[in-house]
Amino acid sequence: MQGLPDWITLGGHGLYVWGSYAVTLVAMLVDAWSARRAVQQQRDRLEEDPT
Amino acid sequence: MFASPPRFCAMAAATTPWLWAACLVLTLAGLYIGFAVAPTDATQGESYRIIYIHVPAAWMSMILYVAMAFWAAVGWAFNARMGSLLAHALAPTGAMFTFVALWTGALWGRPTWGTWWVWDARLTSELVLLFLYLGYIALRAAIDDEQRADKASALLAIVGVVNVPIIYFSVRWWNTLHQGASVSLTAAPRMAQIMLTGMLVMTFACWAYAFAAVFTRARGYALERDAGAAWVHEHLETHAKERA
Asked: Could you tell me the pTM of the whole model?
């Protein structure tokens, strides 16, 4: 780890800190994707069966 | 607006892009304050920087549960479709924030307490909250009839809301490893102003995210429930044109 900027290693706690934000990012992306899918499914359904 | 699916969907479609944009801008601002402006904590060192997501996520997990129980109760008491739809749409995002609060708490606990997890009142009641969200989602999914699903899941949501004050007051009622509240509506904050500012900006980012995700999902559910209605065709055609 030596040589990396301090703001990446964060005093040896970088794995925990950046890990927290990585877990959050993945969880939010999955949630946002599932929310968007709810609308997209209706759009696809209408395209398949316009009646 | 919250009683009429067509009006709700029009409002959601119009506001959601702005909410996503607000979420992105506020997140970048909050992370800049939290990582570039706020100093190292005197006692916890750099690991304290997890609070910029942990605390907002924990707050959102409780607030969204109360909102879910409220809308479920409105849907049940007044037979209001949008109430039940909003409760249904709130559950996955609330579960996500609870999951994030638990995980980021574990990632903060390891370097600070020396352990990923302890069965203390705050952590355990937050885990119970995750199970309540998952139970609500599973119960809805298990019942095919929409109206029966609305009522059964509303009952679970309303009963489960008793867990929220238990989470909030657990650090006062019991002797927990988890620290007490650093921010309260009735007392001065017990943290540096710049750290508090970063945390509040991240909280607003989480609010914008929650509104955007819940509005998007509720819109999808409303379109699904009224599939075949003229307004659904008009709405999708209007917004298909906007996208193109």
From this structure: 0.92
